[in-house]
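Postdoc handover notes: sequence design on the structure in folder B. Input tokens:
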């Protein structure tokens, strides 16, 4: 048995009774509200393709639709990307901005996230351009330019409160991942290590092997085994091409505000809501969420 979930952004709670009832008439099934104006589920819809049917009704309204299994719905493991997923920026682009190099670095980042470039080669090229940047400036960027993605703390705090294990696995850098993982509440963080010289300036290199799409998938599978879980009990979230392998390996892979190649291939896509959408996908109600 499965459930159709309709989700709006909490900052724009436009999910109406009228729309939900219209979707229900087209898909059949039982209506159950999770958060008024924000999230509602239709249990056991009868339509052949409930998501397409729902999207036809939704039209251009900023509401997401997803179809998820009821079995193992509340996940026991979440593996999340960091840049443009749990935080709103790409850290390497902001570091480049401190050197006046943001446009050229951001272009490489964008192409890598779309899957047009080899991730490791693109990372090496961009990090080389950061050579000479002082550690203090890196820390300034972290403090002044990086913002948490809406709903992220609620997502992680709630899943932790209900017994899940949460891991931040990033193709970015430990100086950011370790710091933001603690602020958000993750159980662990894995990321690339920037190298510094004796004067505490970036050497333009990262420690090898790097954290890439294979690392992300492998960490998901290793944690699944370590925790004695089935794949069906796992969830992954990300936005870029280097997240796709882990999204496809997880029991529920969620592409959030993702690049087209990722949104097209992930089992669930969230285009409008914030990270609390991942809680509603799991059947949490507004009262369950730890804020």
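Designed sequence:
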């Amino acid at each position: 048995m499965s459930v159709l979930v309709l989700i709006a952004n909490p900052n724009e709670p436009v999910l109406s009774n009228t729309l939900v009832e219209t979707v229900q008439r087209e898909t059949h099934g039982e209506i159950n509200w999770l958060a008024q104006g924000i999230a509602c589920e239709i249990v056991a819809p009868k339509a052949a393709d409930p998501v397409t049917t729902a999207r036809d009704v939704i039209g251009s309204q900023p509401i997401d639709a997803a179809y998820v299994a009821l079995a193992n719905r509340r996940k026991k493991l979440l593996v999340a990307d960091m840049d443009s997923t749990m935080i709103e920026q790409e850290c390497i682009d902001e570091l480049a901005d401190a050197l006046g190099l943001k446009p050229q670095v951001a272009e490489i980042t964008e192409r890598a996230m779309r899957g047009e470039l080899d991730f490791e080669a693109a990372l090496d090229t961009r990090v080389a351009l950061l050579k000479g940047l002082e550690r203090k400036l890196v820390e300034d960027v972290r403090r002044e330019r990086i913002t948490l993605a809406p709903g992220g703390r609620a997502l992680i705090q709630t899943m932790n409160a209900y017994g899940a294990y949460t891991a931040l696995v990033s193709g970015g850098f430990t100086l950011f991942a370790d710091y933001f993982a603690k602020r958000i509440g993750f159980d662990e963080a894995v990321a690339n290590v920037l190298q510094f010289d004796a004067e505490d300036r970036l050497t333009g290199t990262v420690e090898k092997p790097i954290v890439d799409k294979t690392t992300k998938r492998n960490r998901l599978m290793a944690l699944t085994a370590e925790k004695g879980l089935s794949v069906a009990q796992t969830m992954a979230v990300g936005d870029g091409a280097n997240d796709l392998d882990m999204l496809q390996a997880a029991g529920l892979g969620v592409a959030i505000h993702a690049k087209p190649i990722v949104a097209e291939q992930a089992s669930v896509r969230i285009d409008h809501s914030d990270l609390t959408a991942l809680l509603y996908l799991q059947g949490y109600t507004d009262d369950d969420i730890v804020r």
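Context for whoever picks this up: The first helix runs from residue 17 to 27. Don't rerun without checking with the PI first.
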